[in-house]
């Protein structure tokens, strides 16, 4: 059942990430990441990857980005200046979402219900943090002190201290949380099966409002 859920989830999930001067789009049914110029929206190149890329995370501290492969148990590191693969690292499990915080890579592991912390310089796993069931979306706050993980089958969010690798709190939200965006005061969570948007206060770490939206919200962004 979890494998079927992951397959369906990947059809919903589209990873589009921007970082000057490019934005990147993965090919979930293929083996590549397309790189577009932000200035004129033209295709610059397509970087070859392993089969089935899912999550993309841009490092704010180094000239590379990471790509996850849930069906391969792998993560790739790609040079964001030369636009070539640097290394493919086996992490096991089903790595899905990814985010950099404090120069480390945090990955949600769908099947093992955990967050894997990787040192991108060595490719070594330095910690595995238990979270809720089927973690998918993952993000960090502005100062990178917290990592937020959306646990789709637990209907909650795990907030992790990115320095201590400890759980701060689990926050109950709507059914099947999947996508997340933050500003300076609130986190906004798209609950893909509840057809709702949860609004969470960043100070109290509690859901303060739940708003009805359209069917199966999967992605979101703040302007």
Describe, in plain words, how this protein is organized in 3D.
The mean pLDDT is 90. The chain is mostly beta strands and 223 residues long. The strands form 5 sheets. The chain has a 4-stranded antiparallel sheet, with no helix packed on it. Strands 5-6-7-8 form a 4-stranded antiparallel sheet, with no helix packed on it. A 4-stranded antiparallel sheet has the order 9-10-11-12, with no helix packed on it. The protein has one helix at 2-12, and strands spanning 16-19, 22-26, 32-37, 43-48, 56-58, 64-69, 74-79, 84-90, 95-101, 104-109, 114-119, 124-130, 135-140, 146-151, 156-161, 166-172, 177-182, 186-191, 196-201, 206-212. The protein has a single domain (2-175), classed as Methylamine Dehydrogenase, Chain H, CATH 2.130.10.10. The longest helix is centred in the first third of the chain and has 11 residues, at 2-12. It starts with a helix and ends in an 11-residue tail after the last strand. It is globular, with a radius of gyration of 16 Å.
